[in-house]
Every structure is written in C-alpha cells, then in structure tokens.
Amino acid sequence: MANADCIVLQGGNMAEAHPVGFQWVAEAKARGAKVIHVDPRFTRTSAVADKHIAIRVGSDVALLGALINHVLTHDLWFRDYVLAYTNAARLVSADFRDTEDLGGLFSGFDPETGTYDNTTWAYDEGSDDTLQDPRTVFQILKRHYARYTPELVQQVCGISEADFIYLADAVTGNSGRERTTCWAYATGWTQHTFGAQFIRTAAVLQLLLGNVGRPGSGIMALRGHASIQGSTDIPTLFNLFPGYLPMPVAGRHDTLDAYLAAVGNTQQKGFWANADTYFVSLMKAYFGDAATAENDWYFDRLPRLTGPHSTYETAMAMIDDQVEGYFVLGQNPAVGSANGKLQREAMRHLKWLVVRDLSLIESATWWQDSPEVLSGEVRTEDIETEVFFLPAATHVEKAGSFTQTQRLLQWRHQAVQPPGECQSELDFFLELGQRIRSLVADSGDERDRPLLDMTWDYPDDETGNPDPQAVLREINGYRTGEHGQRELVSGFGELKADGSTSSGCWIYAGVFAGDENKAARRVPGGGAGVSQSQWGWAWPADRRILYNRASADPDGKPWSDRKKYIWWDEEQQRWVGDDVPDFPVDRAPHSRPDPALGGPAALGGDDPFIMQSDGKGWLFAPSGLVDGPLPTHFEPQESPVRNLLYPQQQSPARVIYPREDNLDAPSAGEQGADVFPFVFTTYRLTEHHTAGGMSRWLPYLSELQPEMFCEVSPQLAAERGLVNEGWATIVSPRAVIEAKVLVTERMTPLTIDGRTVHQIGLPYHWGVGNEALVTGDAANDLIGVTLDPNVLIQESKVGSCDIVAGRRPRGAAAEALLASYNERAGVTVQTDNQRITDPPAELHDPAPGDDRDQEGWTRW
Amino acid sequence: MGRLSTLQWPVVRQLRTGDRTGRGVAATSPTTRDLQPRTTTADRVVQSVCPYCAVGCGQQVYVKDEKVVQIEGDPDSPISRGRLCPKGSASEQLVNAPGRQYEVLYRKPRGTQWERLDRDSAIEMIAQRFVQSRRNRWQERDDEGRILRRTMGIASLGGATLDNEENYLIKKLFTAAGAIQIENQARI
C-alpha cells in the first residue's frame, strides 16, 4: 500500500480498526498519494483522507459498477494489460442471458431451489481480439454495466455526481503504466448477502485498470483477527481441507477420481492441475502409512458433506436437538454471532459445551446471566446443558505461528509457562486426541479406524509443552530420501501423488525448508531488499506480491521504471526482480506451450494468473461463483429502498432462513416498511476487539470505551427526540436493545430515490453478563441470519430498525414491545423471503426481436 | 510533608531548569528520579506478535521472575516499526487481567453455580462425551446409499485467534473423528 499512488478505502475504517497498518497509508499519502474513504460514516479514517464520500450502506456494487462503466465508456482501460492478461476477448455461450435480459436474474436460475445452473455461463470456443463480437466478455461487461451511471449512483448510493467524478478521476488518473491504485476493504464488504460480489466488482475494475500483481496495486483484505488468514489457510472451516482443497461432498465426489477432477483436472492450465499431489500429500500427513494407493490414499474413509454445514446451520441444528456437544475456542457466539438470541437458544439445547477462553465470557455463563435468564424467559434450573470451562494460554504463554492479513507467517516465541491450569489448544487437543484414541483403541469398530490410523505422535519441546515446531514441520511436509530417511520438502513443487511425500498444507510447503523455521526469521526491517523478505515467510513460496508476472508487460519488460518489480532477464533466461517470481521461473514471455500438456507446463508466457484454468484474470467468471458471473446491484435482505436497477429486489441466490426466530422487516414497497424506517450498520472501535472477550476484561480498554452507544445524525436526533448522552431504544424484528446516544454530524442523512434515508451506527463489542468489567446490550441481537451463498457469511453490516428515545423495557415488556412492532409491520416468516420479486418481469426470456441498443430499452 | 522552600516552588524550578512547559525535569522528585522502567530491569525480552487484529505487529515481551511485566512494540518489525495500538499496548493486561481464569470450572445439568474440577478429570469427561455423542449421531450412508461416514453430534467454533499449528491439530482430529461442523470467525 505504501507504493500506491491512490488508495481507496471502502467497506472498512482502517485508521481505527487497523491503526498500525494505517501508517503505510499515511506513508503513501506523505509521498503524494491520494487517499479516499468511501463509508457510511465519517470516521478517523475519513479525517485524514483527502476526501470522505458518504455512501448508503450496502450499495457499493452500484458505485463500483458505475466506475467500471465510466472506465469502459470513456476508454480509460489499460488496453495492453487487459488484452494480454484478462479473458476480455473470450466468447461466452450463445445461451447466456444477462440480468439486463431477465430483470435481475442470470440464465440458469431455479426459483424453487434458489440456485443457478451455470452451464450457460461457460466459454464458447474461440475469442475475438478486436473485442467487437457481442458475445465477447468485453461486450457482455459493457452491456451489463451500461445503466450504472453517475445519475444512478446519486439515486442509489446518495453520492453526488461531483463526488463520483472526483473518485473516478482519482482512480483512473492514478492507473496505467506509470501509476497504480490500491483498494482496501474489510467486513463492510464481506458481511452482505452478496458480499463476495462486492469484492468481485473491485476485481473487475482493478483488472480493467491493470492494477493487479504490481507494486501499490491490488485489493487488500484487512482481516480482523491475528490468525484469521491462517485459520482459513489451515482451516477450522466445514467446507475446506488445508490449502483450499474442498471437503468431499456426497453425490459430487463419491470417488477419488471424481474429487480430483472437480478440484483441478490434469488437463487444465495452472497449478490446480496438480491437486492430486496436494491431496495425496495431505492424506499422508494425516494418516501416514495407513494412506495407501490401494485404499485411494484414505479417501473412502473421509467424512462427506451434504449441504452448507456452516456455523448458522449448525446453530439451527442445535435448536432441533441434532447436535449434542459444542467446542467454543476463543470465540464468543453469544455476543459475536448474528441473531444472538438464536445463538443462546442453540446452546441451551446442547448436552455438553466446552468453552476454552481466558476469562468467563458470555458464551460460558449464559446459563446464569444471559438476557433470557435476566428477563425470566428461561430459568437456570431448567437448563440441562453441562458446561466445561477450561482456561486457555495467552499468546505469550505458548509458541506458534500466526498468519497475518498479507499471508505472512510470523512465529511467536514462548515467553513464560501457562499459569495454573491454563493450557494451549495444542496441548489440550493433543491430550484430548490421546484420550479419545485410548477410549476406542479396542473397540474393533470400523468407524474408529481413522482415529487410530491418524498420526498423533508429537514430542515435547524444551519447555515441556508439545512442540509446535514438530507440527509446523508436518505442515511443511517431508519427502522420502535416497536411503529411506525423511527430509523436509523445500516447496510444493516437490510434492508427489505417489505417496512418497507428505504435506499438511501444500501452500505452506517451504516454511520449514532446510530445517529452518522461516516464520521465525527476524532480520531487522526485513533486510535490505524491497520485499523485506528476511522477516517471516509468506505463502506460497515466500512470494510477497501474488501474480507478480503481471508487473511486467507481455514482452517481459517492466510496464514502467517507476513500477518495476519482476521482469524477464534475456541473458539468464529467467524471471528476476525484487520478489520471488509467482510464475514458472524459466517460462519465456512469448512461449506458447501446447495446452494439451496441462498444468503449469501449459501456462503461456503471458498467463500471469497461474491458479486460473486459462491463466487469465477473469472479468467474467464462467465458474467459481454460485450467484452470478458478473456482480450486480441488489438491495440488502431488508431495505427501505427499492432496487432501482431491476425488478428483482434482493440477491436471488442468497441463503434464506424463513423462521419465527429469524424475522425480517418489510422492504420498500411492502406493507409495514415504515415501521422499521431506518438503516443500521455495525462496526468496531479501536479500543475493543470483536465480541469483547479480549478487551472487556482489560481495565485500560474498558475505561477507554466503557459503554454501548449508537451514532445518529442531528437530523435524526431531532426527528426522534434523541438527546446526546441520553438513552435510545433500537428495535429490529429480532430484538430490542438500548444504547447511549451519540449525536454527531459524522452521520449524514442521504437522499435516496427522492427521500431521506437515515443511517444509525452501532459498535458490536458489548454483551449482557455479570463477568466483564463493562457490559451492555449486544448489537448482534438485532441482526438476522441471511447469508451470502458463496461463503455463507451473514448480512450483519446492514439491517432495518426503529429508534426511539429512552431505555428499553425490562422483562416480559421487552418481548411485548417486539411483538407489537412485528404485528404493526405485518411481519411473517415470508417477509423478504420470496425468491423472485416480480415473476412476470423476470422469468421470461426476451423476444429475439427486442432491440437492446435502442435508447432507453428496457423490458420492465 | 514540610513546606517547600522558595527555591523548590514549581515556577522557580521551571525557571531555574529551563523547563518551560513544566513537564520535564521540573516535575521530578527524588522518588520519580529513582524510578526505573520495567523494561530495563527485566530478566529477558522475548519476540512475539500482537494477538488482536490481523496486521501482525511485532511485540517485545519483557519477563521478570517468570512473569510478564511489560509488552512493547518491536522496532525491528517491518510491518509495525515499533508501534502498537491501544489494544496491543494493553496486551500486558490481557496476560495479567484481573478477571482471568486459572482454574477449570464445571456446571452440571440444571446447576446454578460453577463447581471446581481438576483438569485431568475434565479432559477425560470431555473425551468420554466426545466418543458417546460421536456414536449417537453417526451417519454411515445417506438415503440414496452414498457414503457419509460422519457424525453430526459434535460441533466446534473458533480458530481465528489460535495458532496455525493448533488449527491443524483441531481439523485433523475432528476429520478423523468424522465431525464436520467445524467453523471459525472467518465465516463471521
């Protein structure tokens, strides 16, 4: 980011949520870079940016789509980059229909299941380098965003045309051969029913501007937890194995061949064609000698998925008494997950619960002091759940690695021993596994074979704790040496599918190359090189900028001296530069290998996107996203604004849960929409961390931010009689909470489609309980569970509510207030949960005679 | 405390020492002059990484008598260059928090209070429940006869605050047990 010429911070508040990382934005600005903050609120990020642009929460695709349209219409795209490195010229199936044709649907939508069959999104044979064929990706893109205009942005986002032009000029003026623009986002983009598409819109724009794989370019995910990146790479997630290999799905991956073909068939270009080497090596790491060629490397014994077994789906299964036991590890779902009441009810249905944390968080004590116990709705004496609380070790009481937001692994050394009965997860799970194994050792039950077959033998280190470096070595992986001895592999390129190698996470292979823990490298400042590579280790292969082949032109020369990074050295016949080349190092720029070779060998010299099956950056995504090949603007699940672009109101493929304990406020145009007239959004403060488990027990931090509050504009305060430092009650169809009032001009009422939309800001760090130094009502109780279908994340950044002055009622009166609101609004489980908003306008293919080029053409 | 002589009057001290703002040497006393920062008296300094957000700021952990006495930013880190935010700066209190729990606690069904339980017993009890619930909710095949080989009886949530090595063991153990409902903050 420090190398960017323009930085757009959107969907986040970097100065407050990532304060120390923000110094690099400040560095860029000090060098003359332009910094623009696009956010519903004016925050400390806005205060030090060149410009703050207030946006209606959830409307980012409309803004970014309009930037794409602006770039295409005014011919501001980076022609050489786009032609060589993206799929702009590819032809798409003649059967493809755009949202422009079908009122907000793409072809292939099944209204019954709410899912797409993406057959018609596929490439056709051939391409058109003139980009004129109407079936090229480029022309489809142009048509898709043609109506995303500055006027539309004004109506949908509440952003003036002047502000839009300011943003467009800043971004396009700082892109091209000589300059680069960088985008950075956080959960303001992800926590939506089509959040993955927010990020995709930025990806399309950045590809058009040539801002991927180059210094100061890209789209930065500002992640919120010390190893949230690591816990995605080496996942504690239901759908993934380490290294982004999918968990097998029944019916889709019933054999090893079917599984491997789905992950990456050996005919396609790029590194996913080697998926067999990654998978077999993982099974060798997990199951050692028990994984053999004869048993398909243990594939048949792996558990299978049958649906989206996400944390929300699982909470609902708990309510249905389908789940008996639950481990909660350094997380606080009673406060931190959407629809807190549903979360707490789920835990009341468990037979047993294990909470491992530093202090008695609300997820450990809800049976004593949850809002439902305090209100008398449930009685402690009636709750059957058995609860174990086990104290955890802090980050300084154990050694191990975190992977931070830029894929960098950093090792922590242990400073002291864990006190009392505190222990690390490593220690706890190693011991739990040993005890489970001895309990089933003599069972003779086939189901227990994997538990007994898995490798589970880890030595202690010199402190007497399980040695985390032994685990990191297993993750790195081994090969069988000349004399049968185990040797650490030096990278994923050495992995084989014949059982001679192992690796617990192929993208981490190399972190322990040469028996050196590279995550522990600590040369001050990272050493003299531009990429500071002597500090920690970045996956994959210690590459600091991904897809960095794109930092050079198709001939292999830097696009400009100013943005020089990786280039082709004719004399050495290899890629050289300031980083590890993210490309086959000896593949010449103009080489055209036979595509039939498959895998990395088939990558052309101008195929920088080495994980894509065609080596190109995808402006149009023929596969990979379940809710559409091109990002499209929809309204949130509940919104007081109608979709001004399409008859379809919400993202049609969103995951909905029509349940009595998960009701939604009527959207614009529906009866009762005026009962919940305001939009709320949630966010972090600098002084607290997520659901407060690591901050509300600390005296300094609790003193700095002692109380739950809401931010409202002076206009809304006047309208609702809210007084600064007084109390407000906030009501959504799920809950009623109270907060102290902060009246501030940082909140701007926006004019949307001719009417005023007020937005309310809510930090989400507090929870109800007796143990923390500071407590308060939880913003997450207000939020419903509706998910993005790609990643199953909840839409917690936007919802509808009412706000009134004064404290909330207590006890049964709170439930009565909620019920009266929902009755007035006519809320039912069907509210907002119709798949198709306007079936006549959406479910019919346009007649061939329709002239789409006609001025003002529209089918609805 | 006795009366100050005129020479000790704060304003005179300021003038005498040239401490114009009164926030430097003029504000010291024999007691404050004898104070030493905890960072200079520590037995050792250990390199670590901040446990809060994902920026990954370097930390220096100061240890005296096997206790953490201070945590400072690591000036060597190319990511943070010695800086820490309010949370990172307060992380010594995370280690030594007044409300931190050091003992295993147990709440029995319908219980109204926590009870003490030693750690070995607790882990053994958890292991027994794990094995039992795993069997209770085992699914060998689906309705169409396809292999499932899984249990729906056990779920887990957490990992974004844990180490890579820890997440690795958790996923491995649960996968071998056939438990699939394993999730963390990355989904949230």
Write up what this structure looks like.
The complex is a heterodimer of chains A (860) and B (188). Among the domains of chain A are: 6-221, 3-Layer(aba) Sandwich (Dimethylsulfoxide Reductase, domain 2); 311-398 and 421-447, Rossmann fold (3-Layer(aba) Sandwich), CATH 3.40.50.740; 673-840, Barwin-like endoglucanases, CATH 2.40.40.20. Chain A is 24% helix and 14% strand. The model of chain A is unreliable at 855-860 (pLDDT under 50). Chain A is an alpha/beta fold and 860 residues long. The relative contact order of chain A is 0.13. In chain A, the strands form 10 sheets. Chain A has a 6-stranded mixed β-sheet with strand order 24-26-25-30-23-29. In chain A, strands 3-2-1-8-9 form a 5-stranded parallel β-sheet. In chain B, the strands form 3 sheets. A 3-stranded antiparallel β-sheet of chain B has the order 1-2-3. In chain B, strands 6-7-8 form a 3-stranded mixed β-sheet. Helices cover 31% and strands 24% of the residues of chain B. The mean pLDDT of chain B is 94. With 188 residues, chain B is an alpha+beta fold. Chain B contains 7 helices and 8 strands. Chain B folds into 3 domains: 1-35, no CATH class; 38-95, N-terminal domain of TfIIb (Single Sheet), CATH 2.20.25; 118-187, no CATH class. The chains are: A alpha/beta (860), B alpha+beta (188). β12 of chain A pairs parallel with β7 (147-157) of chain B.
Order of helices and strands of chain B: HHHEEEHHEEHEEHE
Q: Report the major sheet of chain A.
A: 6 strands, mixed
What is the share of helical residues of chain A? 10-25%
Oligomerization state: heterodimer
Note the main sheet of chain B.
3 strands, antiparallel
Largest chain interface and its two residue counts? Answer: A-B, 160 and 118 residues
